[in-house]
Design goal:
This protein is mainly α and 181 residues long. It has helices at residues 41-46, 49-52, 55-58, 67-70, 75-88, 93-124, 143-152, 156-167; strands spanning 15-17, 23-25, 29-32, 37-40.
Protein backbone atom coordinates (compact mmCIF):
# COMPACT_ATOMS: atom_id res chain seq x y z
CA UNK A 1 0.00 0.00 0.00
CA UNK A 2 1.24 3.44 -0.93
CA UNK A 3 -1.17 5.92 0.50
CA UNK A 4 -4.62 4.59 -0.26
CA UNK A 5 -3.47 2.82 -3.44
CA UNK A 6 -2.18 -0.70 -3.80
CA UNK A 7 0.87 -0.39 -6.05
CA UNK A 8 3.52 -2.89 -7.14
CA UNK A 9 6.15 -3.58 -9.74
CA UNK A 10 4.75 -4.54 -13.14
CA UNK A 11 6.43 -6.31 -16.00
CA UNK A 12 5.76 -3.28 -18.22
CA UNK A 13 8.53 -1.42 -16.36
CA UNK A 14 11.07 -3.67 -18.09
CA UNK A 15 10.20 -1.91 -21.36
CA UNK A 16 10.52 1.66 -22.51
CA UNK A 17 8.09 3.02 -25.07
CA UNK A 18 9.81 5.01 -27.82
CA UNK A 19 8.17 8.01 -29.54
CA UNK A 20 7.52 5.86 -32.64
CA UNK A 21 5.45 3.45 -30.52
CA UNK A 22 7.98 0.61 -30.37
CA UNK A 23 9.11 -0.92 -27.10
CA UNK A 24 12.74 -1.42 -26.09
CA UNK A 25 13.75 -3.72 -23.26
CA UNK A 26 15.57 -2.13 -20.33
CA UNK A 27 18.15 -4.82 -19.66
CA UNK A 28 19.62 -2.90 -16.75
CA UNK A 29 16.56 -3.22 -14.48
CA UNK A 30 16.56 -5.85 -11.81
CA UNK A 31 13.59 -6.42 -9.53
CA UNK A 32 14.10 -7.98 -6.11
CA UNK A 33 10.90 -9.70 -4.92
CA UNK A 34 12.31 -10.19 -1.42
CA UNK A 35 12.90 -6.44 -0.97
CA UNK A 36 10.11 -5.39 -3.34
CA UNK A 37 12.49 -2.89 -4.96
CA UNK A 38 13.86 -2.23 -8.41
CA UNK A 39 17.63 -1.72 -8.92
CA UNK A 40 19.94 -0.50 -11.67
CA UNK A 41 22.38 -3.37 -12.07
CA UNK A 42 24.56 -1.55 -14.61
CA UNK A 43 25.23 1.37 -12.24
CA UNK A 44 25.80 -1.05 -9.36
CA UNK A 45 28.32 -3.20 -11.25
CA UNK A 46 29.99 -0.84 -13.72
CA UNK A 47 29.48 2.62 -12.28
CA UNK A 48 32.03 4.90 -10.76
CA UNK A 49 31.56 6.29 -7.25
CA UNK A 50 28.84 8.74 -8.29
CA UNK A 51 26.94 5.97 -10.10
CA UNK A 52 27.17 3.62 -7.15
CA UNK A 53 25.65 6.31 -4.95
CA UNK A 54 22.82 6.69 -7.49
CA UNK A 55 19.59 5.74 -5.66
CA UNK A 56 18.59 2.88 -7.99
CA UNK A 57 22.07 1.37 -7.68
CA UNK A 58 22.58 1.74 -3.96
CA UNK A 59 19.21 1.43 -2.28
CA UNK A 60 16.80 0.58 -5.06
CA UNK A 61 13.37 2.09 -5.28
CA UNK A 62 9.93 0.98 -4.19
CA UNK A 63 8.25 4.30 -4.94
CA UNK A 64 5.88 2.82 -7.53
CA UNK A 65 3.94 6.05 -8.04
CA UNK A 66 7.09 7.79 -9.38
CA UNK A 67 8.85 4.77 -10.88
CA UNK A 68 8.57 5.94 -14.50
CA UNK A 69 10.41 9.17 -13.56
CA UNK A 70 13.11 7.25 -11.68
CA UNK A 71 13.68 4.88 -14.60
CA UNK A 72 14.65 7.71 -16.96
CA UNK A 73 18.32 7.69 -17.97
CA UNK A 74 20.73 10.30 -16.71
CA UNK A 75 24.38 11.04 -17.49
CA UNK A 76 25.64 8.86 -14.62
CA UNK A 77 23.62 5.90 -15.89
CA UNK A 78 24.73 6.45 -19.49
CA UNK A 79 28.39 6.44 -18.45
CA UNK A 80 27.82 3.15 -16.65
CA UNK A 81 26.14 1.74 -19.77
CA UNK A 82 29.17 2.71 -21.87
CA UNK A 83 31.49 1.00 -19.40
CA UNK A 84 29.28 -2.13 -19.50
CA UNK A 85 29.26 -2.15 -23.30
CA UNK A 86 33.06 -1.87 -23.37
CA UNK A 87 33.32 -4.72 -20.89
CA UNK A 88 30.96 -6.94 -22.88
CA UNK A 89 32.85 -6.26 -26.11
CA UNK A 90 36.16 -7.00 -24.32
CA UNK A 91 37.39 -3.45 -24.71
CA UNK A 92 38.86 -2.38 -21.45
CA UNK A 93 39.49 1.32 -20.90
CA UNK A 94 42.92 0.56 -19.47
CA UNK A 95 43.85 -1.74 -22.37
CA UNK A 96 43.00 0.93 -24.95
CA UNK A 97 45.21 3.40 -23.08
CA UNK A 98 48.02 0.84 -22.97
CA UNK A 99 47.60 0.07 -26.67
CA UNK A 100 47.94 3.76 -27.51
CA UNK A 101 50.97 4.10 -25.25
CA UNK A 102 52.55 0.93 -26.67
CA UNK A 103 51.98 2.19 -30.21
CA UNK A 104 53.76 5.46 -29.38
CA UNK A 105 56.67 3.62 -27.78
CA UNK A 106 56.92 1.32 -30.78
CA UNK A 107 56.92 4.24 -33.22
CA UNK A 108 59.57 6.07 -31.18
CA UNK A 109 61.76 2.95 -31.10
CA UNK A 110 61.48 2.63 -34.88
CA UNK A 111 62.44 6.29 -35.33
CA UNK A 112 65.43 6.02 -32.98
CA UNK A 113 66.54 2.77 -34.65
CA UNK A 114 66.59 4.42 -38.09
CA UNK A 115 68.40 7.46 -36.71
CA UNK A 116 71.04 5.28 -35.02
CA UNK A 117 71.60 3.32 -38.20
CA UNK A 118 72.03 6.61 -40.09
CA UNK A 119 74.52 7.83 -37.48
CA UNK A 120 76.48 4.57 -37.69
CA UNK A 121 76.52 4.78 -41.51
CA UNK A 122 77.85 8.36 -41.47
CA UNK A 123 80.48 7.46 -38.84
CA UNK A 124 81.70 4.39 -40.74
CA UNK A 125 81.99 6.41 -43.95
CA UNK A 126 83.80 9.17 -42.04
CA UNK A 127 81.29 11.73 -43.33
CA UNK A 128 80.62 14.99 -41.51
CA UNK A 129 77.25 15.19 -39.82
CA UNK A 130 76.37 18.86 -39.66
CA UNK A 131 75.97 21.46 -42.33
CA UNK A 132 76.16 25.23 -42.12
CA UNK A 133 72.44 25.59 -41.48
CA UNK A 134 70.49 23.20 -39.27
CA UNK A 135 66.99 24.59 -39.91
CA UNK A 136 64.36 22.71 -41.94
CA UNK A 137 63.94 25.24 -44.76
CA UNK A 138 67.18 25.27 -46.81
CA UNK A 139 68.09 22.52 -49.25
CA UNK A 140 71.63 21.89 -47.97
CA UNK A 141 71.27 21.01 -44.32
CA UNK A 142 74.18 18.70 -43.72
CA UNK A 143 74.66 15.03 -44.38
CA UNK A 144 72.77 13.78 -41.32
CA UNK A 145 69.50 15.67 -41.90
CA UNK A 146 69.65 15.05 -45.66
CA UNK A 147 70.16 11.31 -45.06
CA UNK A 148 67.21 11.23 -42.62
CA UNK A 149 65.03 13.05 -45.18
CA UNK A 150 66.08 10.56 -47.85
CA UNK A 151 65.29 7.53 -45.66
CA UNK A 152 61.92 9.03 -44.70
CA UNK A 153 60.81 8.65 -48.33
CA UNK A 154 60.88 4.88 -47.78
CA UNK A 155 59.95 4.70 -44.09
CA UNK A 156 56.38 5.85 -43.32
CA UNK A 157 56.96 6.07 -39.55
CA UNK A 158 59.94 8.37 -39.99
CA UNK A 159 58.11 10.35 -42.66
CA UNK A 160 55.18 10.91 -40.30
CA UNK A 161 57.60 11.96 -37.55
CA UNK A 162 59.35 14.49 -39.79
CA UNK A 163 56.06 15.99 -40.96
CA UNK A 164 54.97 16.40 -37.32
CA UNK A 165 58.23 18.20 -36.55
CA UNK A 166 57.93 20.52 -39.54
CA UNK A 167 54.25 21.32 -38.85
CA UNK A 168 54.74 21.82 -35.11
CA UNK A 169 55.18 25.34 -33.81
CA UNK A 170 56.47 24.09 -30.46
CA UNK A 171 60.15 24.67 -29.83
CA UNK A 172 60.47 22.00 -27.15
CA UNK A 173 59.17 19.10 -29.25
CA UNK A 174 61.15 15.85 -28.95
CA UNK A 175 62.68 15.29 -32.38
CA UNK A 176 65.59 12.86 -31.77
CA UNK A 177 67.47 14.86 -34.44
CA UNK A 178 69.27 17.64 -32.61
CA UNK A 179 71.44 18.09 -29.59
CA UNK A 180 68.60 20.02 -27.89
CA UNK A 181 65.65 17.65 -28.25
Amino acid sequence: MQGKWLRSFHEEHYYKKLPNGKFVKRTWISYSPSQDKVFCIVCKQFGKEDAISYQLARFGSDDWSHISFKLKSNSVHLESEIRRAMFVSNQRVISTIFESSNRNVSENREIVRVIFESLIYLARQNITFRGRNESWTPNKQGHFIELIKFISKYNPTLSSHLSKIQNSKKKNRLTFLSNLS
